[in-house]
From TrEMBL:
Coiled-coil regions listed: 74-101
Keywords: Bacterial flagellum biogenesis, Bacterial flagellum protein export, Cell membrane, Cell projection, Cilium, Coiled coil, Flagellum, GTP-binding, Membrane, Nucleotide-binding, Protein transport, Transport
Gene that specifies this protein: flhF
Organism: Caldicellulosiruptor changbaiensis
Any GO BP: bacterial-type flagellum organization
This protein's name: Flagellar biosynthesis protein FlhF
Lineage: Bacteria, Bacillati, Bacillota, Bacillota incertae sedis, Caldicellulosiruptorales
Domain SRP54-type proteins GTP-binding: 175-366
Amino acid sequence: MKIKRYLAHDMQEALIRIKADLGKDAVILSTKKVRQKGLFGFFKKPLIEVTAACEEEKVIRREEGMPKPENLTLSLQLSQIKELEKKIDSLEKTIKEVIKDTNVIPEVKEVSKKNFLDVMRENLKKNGVEEEIVEGLLAKVNWDGSINNMVNNMYKEIKNILGTPVTLSLDSKQPQVVFFVGPTGVGKTTTIAKIAAKLMFEEGKKVGFITADTYRIAAVEQLKTYAEIMNIKTKVWYEVDEYDQIIKSFDDSDVVLVDTAGRSHKNQEHMDELRAFVEKASPDEVFLLLSATTQPSVFKEIVNTYSFIDNYKVIITKVDEVSTYGNILNIKHYTQKPIAYVTTGQNVPDDIQQFNPEHFAKLIIGSKVL
């Protein structure tokens, strides 16, 4: 991972330089105001120092494919900037040699490391990562070496925690029954429609719907609307004992997606009822849906409530409604289950993607991706 610092008069100028230098995949690690040096610096507007990072291989590929500037003035400016950067690098080396000769370098390194750890800790917290997870990460990561190595180690550790996506796996059994469970308002019905559309149009599977969400008439009608558009057979499941008869009507389907009622994790009666439905159907797969907008303290309660399900995968919804992405790491930490998909809007079937741990590891470390 390549890390560079930029001094600019404002954030817009910094972003332009970062995009030109590191590309659109660069991640901003920190920003701060810097007073210009010298006596007259006190009377001037402070500069902005922005620290940004990008994977080195992407920078190399970008530089190899970069077209030569046609404008002579722009070419001259780029040349002057590179020459200035060389002088700065040379000056930094000279300062390091002077510090080394005066036996102060260990203290400077220690201060630099402490400052970096403070920046990393603050950045993770600002991005919504729970404090206990932040401290666990800082304690686990190897902080020896350059700042580049330290950031890369943190990135690898977060990516490792997020794990590998495990999506819907279909075998030869017909029909394969898949349950979707989760709290009220997380978007189960819309998510089911998105997955159904992808199974039908991308994999050529024959899909069936069962809705057990009889608490909300609107939910039944919503699923029926999607079913009519995609020509999918749909059945409503009212009582637990009706399941055997209902599932027989889907013998010609490859997969049956079951929409369950949104259950409050605080309502034990409703949770007992859901448990009865799950135990009766004994589904091949279960997906627990959690919203990226939910508070971490609520995640813990929800996860405990659904502990009666031995194996499940996680779908994180409403990722488009958050500005920080620490909750992705929080969800993984509290569930300890694989994340399959994330949803990013209401459009069926477009706004659902397979979970990308590399992408979200970058978002969690940095404040945003350019």
